[in-house]
Design brief:
By secondary structure, this protein is mostly helical.
């Protein structure tokens, strides 16, 4: 992993750290980056779900409770 040096507003970092409960500045920044990526990808994921087409044998197929499958 590369080491990158950046200036970060310390008050914003402190506030983000409080909100996330992160233990370190690095954890806070890593979480912020992962969150930004997930938020930006979400609309594309929703569009893929909406565009999904089902075959006739999938429509009204029985559902499986994941908790029952783990037993």
């Amino acid at each position: 992993m590369a080491i990158t040096s950046i200036d970060i507003d310390q008050e914003e970092l402190r506030h983000a750290k409080e909100l996330t409960g992160a233990a370190s500045n690095r954890e806070t920044v890593d979480l912020a980056l992962r969150t930004l990526i997930a938020v930006r990808r979400q609309p594309a994921a929703v569009e893929r779900i909406i565009a999904r087409r089902f075959s006739e044998d999938q429509i009204d197929a029985p559902t499986v409770d994941p908790a029952e499958g783990a037993r």
